[in-house]
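Shipment paperwork, digital attachment
Item: protein structure file
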Amino acid sequence: MHVTRLDLRNLRNLADVSLRPGPGLNLFLGPNGAGKTSVLEGLHLLAYGRSFRGRVRDGLIRTGQDAVEAFAEWRIEGDEGQHRAGLRHSGGGWEARLDGESVDHLGQLCAALMVVTFEPGSHALVSGGGEPRRRFVDRGLFHVEQGFLPVWRRYSRALKQRNALLKSRAGTAQISAWDQELSASGEELTRRRVLYLERLQERLAPVATALAPSLGLMSLEFEPGWRRSSLSLADALAVARERDQMLGHTSVGPHRADWKLRLADKSEGEALSRGQAKLAALSCLFAQAADCAAERADWPLIALDDLASELDAEHRARVMDFLHGTPAQVFVTGTDRLEASGEMAVFHVEQGCVEPA
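Attachment content:
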């Protein structure tokens, strides 16, 4: 997947930017506050319908303007046609088109354009709570398994209904009626997550060796959200029902799932430096990109904000060499030029203007 054109309008300090990125590594250089991160935000907005820096209404739209607009054209390897997507978002509503057709649900846009993004919040894959790690797994599954989204929606609807009954102090019979639906969809959701993480573990090993061999073998340890080894989800819901009625929400299930990254050369609980945490998170993200490439025969776009920060020269070189060894199109921001062994398209960003260097 290679973006051949990216247009951004009224996105933070970017009034009207039109780019023709190269097919490989694209480096956006400029001082802090110039608008480098906003370029990646625009790409992320098209792929997810939201910014990685919060809600659209929270400063993403240029001051004095009504909406932010993003448009991209891209080609997919093995596909002779060119694809187009456009999104206009006012913060309160959105309009989108994909290949000339109106989009009814943002999921259609998200399915068409996969972007693996590393931004400051990505450290949460290693050091944060369970929500960003669940989202990481579910986004990966969304892009490689066509039947995943209906299962996820089925579980989410059942959970919402059960929680509403618990909050309203409904009787046991009413709550139990939703337990079967919640357990059936939850078991299937968990099965898919388990298989995905097992496959991701295989992708992770060579990536981690290339990026951070000093951290040792990286392994992924799944926590399903209940004691799955001894109880089915149906049994776990039954056991927890009285407690859930007191709490007013469902306390067990896939919505409480998590996974941990274990490092062979680090004892459990030992703190990682910021650089080590970044390398570990990058390893997970690149493993996800490699899995998408293997399952769909197409590399996703990779967007890396402020890649050089917290990494020494050796590890910056390792990351760059890994990226150059893939056919992925990569967008990287930084304040200083990065050394690379291969070709690289460079853009200079200053005061909201983006120009080829």
